[in-house]
Every structure is written in structure tokens, then in C-alpha cells.
Amino acid sequence: MLRTRLITGAAVGAVALLALTACAPRDSSSAGAPAGVETAELVTSTSAGTAPVDTVTWSIVEGEPATLDPASSANLIIPNLCDNLLALQPDFSVEPGVAIRAEWTDPTTFVIELRDDVTFWDGTPLTAADVVYSLDRNRSPESQWFAAFALVNGIEATGDHEVTVTFNAPDSTFRDALAGGGGAVMSAAFGAEAGDNLGTSDGGLMCTGPYELAADGWTPGNEIVTTANPDYWNGSPLVSTLTYVFVSDASTLATALTQGEIHGALNVSPSSRAAFEGDGAGSLIVGPSTASYSFGPATPDGPAANPEIRRALSLAIDRQQYIDTVLSGLGEPQRTIVPPFTFHELAAADVYQAGYDALEAPEVDLEAAKQLVDGSGEDLSAPLVLAVPAGATEFKNTAQIVQSAAKQIGVEIEINEMQASDFGAMFYDPAAREGIDFVATQGYLETPGVLGYPSLFMLPEELGGVFNWSGYANDEVTAHMQAARTATDEQTAAEEFVAAQQIFAPDMLQVTLAGAYQLSYVNDELTGITTSVAVYSSPWALHLGGQ
């Protein structure tokens, strides 16, 4: 029985509340498999709150952030504090935001026109100079949004409320990036004064968003307190104080949520589904996402770097078993690392969808898998090491499923559960990957667009392939990906990407295991949050309030 509150048509303003007592289960290979959720039932947002609320306590399941600086972190607190130039909607479409216009005036010139009624929390007006400061910070390799600014030649204020960005070449990805953290705006004056402390508990920050960081509101190791911005240009929130706490353990969090001690959380664990379906203070809300679980090679040498071994492992893994076991039924099979929700609102969505549908659907074929292993020419006398983060139920189960499937085709997998610091080091330090063959991850795309995520794995390192640890090099893929980025029309960009995808998808630089739905748990006395993956880039608590 799935007890979840679904709202349909929220993106176009319709409000239809449906309390489901059951969902018809999908076909499953195992008896007693958890009920699934049909794509049409996924919820992008709940109806806006109507009643003021004094205090809401919200848990950040990923733990306490190191910083609230948008250039250095993508945590879920920042979107409620710092506006982006363009506004990402719950359905993953992009609308005007702080910028009322952001368009190309020629193939290498992009002009941003700002609203004239936006102020920072301290009452000072947002100016073009603040936007230049904010965007220019992302031109540093230290910014996590650096790749989105790789083709930028210059950024300057060309009016009190106008900013002009010039490029070395056309960039089809730039506009949508401004709907994410790459387009976050901050006060230039405050940033200059804060210096290296910007975004920390000591330095604070100054933004224009619906909630502001309370004075001395960040108590490290305990909580971050934010308060409603009464002068917010898009309407002041109904929640006076939104306090973030950091409960990461899935079982502990489920207890606190169902007992009403914590009012809500995003990205709750699917392993807690049974607890959330029982009697409790709130409801589990299932929304669309771009997130997926996968594993990929961590070395340019040996069996893991061989596409035939990766294809064999893919053919050995039962995706429905994976969804039922790891995601408790709250996910769907996915053909490659770029899922349809990423592009379904783009102008060329039909081209992207046709390209996606043309890819082979994942299936189990043990005989074909064994033939690939036998014909690979690889020495498989030693086990292949699969690294996963320790303490994460979903990743532990992922590793065990991969290990069991591999055994059926004569491949031995050794699981290495690594502490968080060691696991994280692998993404930046090649020495930390020594002795590791595969790494299991969960990834997502925080803004519309198809190029950013696969580029990390498919392109040469000098072109942005920072996670291309196997040394994958395909000139056709590189040419099509680069042509897609520098295309001046959306149709051409889509056609070029689909041509690249047709080549790189079978090579499985990431063996995609499943797409994971966005899971939120909210107290039944509250409503008005974004419940899709858009939470990473939009003020998801702007409309939060009482029922």
C-alpha cells in the first residue's frame, strides 16, 4: 500500500489532490515486489501553502554543508537563499527570474536584462555590477560551474540593469545553466568584505532570495536558521523561520519525520519506504528526477577499461530486481545516463526522445554476457574491485547485486566499502583510485540540457572529461559533442548530441542501473514545496506554508 499525496497538473496551476491507498504493481520478476509508481503519477510540486507558519524544521539528509557559497556547493539550502538569473520550474522548464530577459543577440553575444525591483536582504538594490561579480566568479577553475563558463570571453555591465557576456564560440548550454547555481547572484560589496570567509558560518553571505541567513544563524554542528525575506520581489514566504538540521541516518530520520519531530526532508531514503507508508505525521511524495545509479571504470588499464566487460556486466544485471531491492520500487529502468526528464521541456525534445528510444533497453542475457567475457581477451583470474561509500544502504545493496550478477558470468567482484573522505578523494586524486576497478555513484543533472553530465565521462580531460578515468577516446563522439555545444540552433544541437549518444551509449562509460525518483517526506499540516529534481536549482520552499 502506497500512502502518498499526489498533485497533478501543478505546473500549469491545476490543483487536484489525490490520496492514494494503493498503486497497481508493475510486472516484477519476484513475488511480493514493492508496488511501483507510474510516470504519470509523479508529482512535480504540491499546492501552495495558504496559512502562515511560525517555524518549520527541515532535515538536510546529505549532512551539514561546508559552505553556502553557490560557486562552491550545490546543497539544498542555497536555492532558498540565493536567486538564480533564470527560474527553473518544478517541471524542469525555464522561465524569467531575476533576469526578465536573457538571450543571444548574435552567435557569440549574450545579453541579460535585470528586473529593477530586486533588493538584497540588507535593502540595497541588485545592480548589473553584482551580476558581473557573481558570474565572473564562475570563470575560475575553482568554481563548480566552471565548465558552463568555459567558452566565455568577457562579462561586463552595459547598463544599470544590463549585463553582456561575450563568447569565444557559440554555446548552446549557457542559457539553461543560468537557471542553476551558475546563475546565482550575490552582493559584490558583501563578497569583497567577506573575502575567503564568504559562505561560511563566520562570513555569511548576502543574496536576494526568499529566505535570509539569520544573524548568527549558523551554529556549526547543530543547525542553520533562516528567516523569511519580507521584501522578496516574488512574494514573502509564509514560513517565518525555516531551520535546517542534519540527520543523515535513514532510520533515525524516518522516526523523527513520522513522529513529527522534524517537519520534512528531501531525498529521503527509499529504504525507509515501509516506515513512511505506515501511520505517521506526514506523507511520502514521489516526484520525477534526473538522478540515476550507475558504476563505471576507475582505471585506464585492465578488464574494467574494456567496453566488452562492461557490456557483459550490464547484460547480467536484472534491472527490475535492482529497482525492487535498492530503490524499494521507487525508480524506473533507464537506457543511458541522460534520462528523458532532462530534455522533455526543451524545444527539440522530440529529437532527444527519438534518440533515447532508439537505444537498446537494458535486459538480462547471461549467455550473451558470457560470450562477451570469453571473447574479451582479458585476464579475470583476480577479482575486480568495486568501490562504494561505507554506511550507505543503497550503495551496499548496489554492490551486492553487481557482485552476484558478475559471478553468474564468471567475473569475481570484490567490494571495497570506503570511508567518505577516502571515497571522495578518488574524484580528485588519481592516487586514491589505485587498486580500484569500478566506482559506483549516484549522479543527477540539476538543470535542463543533455551535454554536461556525459561530457564528464566521454570527453578528453582537457575538454571537460574530468571523470574519464578509463582514457576513453572516440574522435566521432568528441566531434559530435563539441558540435552540439557550439550549435546556434536547438535542432542542430539535438541532432549532434543524439549522434554522439548513439556511439557512446553502447560503450557504457557508466553502466546505468536505474533512474531514481525524487523522494520527499512532508508533514501533513504543510504543503507548497517543489518535489522534482528542480529542488537543486530553485527556491523549493518559497510557497511552503500551512494547509
Write out key terms for the chains shown:
547 residues, alpha+beta, 7-stranded mixed beta sheet, 6-stranded mixed beta sheet, 15 helices, 23 strands, globular, disordered N terminus
Summarize the structure.
Helices cover 25% and strands 22% of the residues. By secondary structure, it is an alpha+beta fold.
Overall 3D geometry?
globular
Structural class: alpha+beta
Low-confidence stretches: 1-30
Strand order of the largest sheet: 10-11-12-3-13-21-14
Relative helix content: 10-25%
Report the biggest beta sheet as strand number plus sense, adding barrel if it closes: 7 strands, mixed
Question: For the residues shown, what is the average pLDDT?
Answer: 93
According to DSSP, the number of beta strands is 23
Q: Which band does the percent of strand residues land in?
A: 15-25%
Radius of gyration, taken over Cα atoms and rounded to an integer in Å:
23 Å
Count the helices. How many?
Answer: 15
For the termini, the CA-CA separation is 24 Å
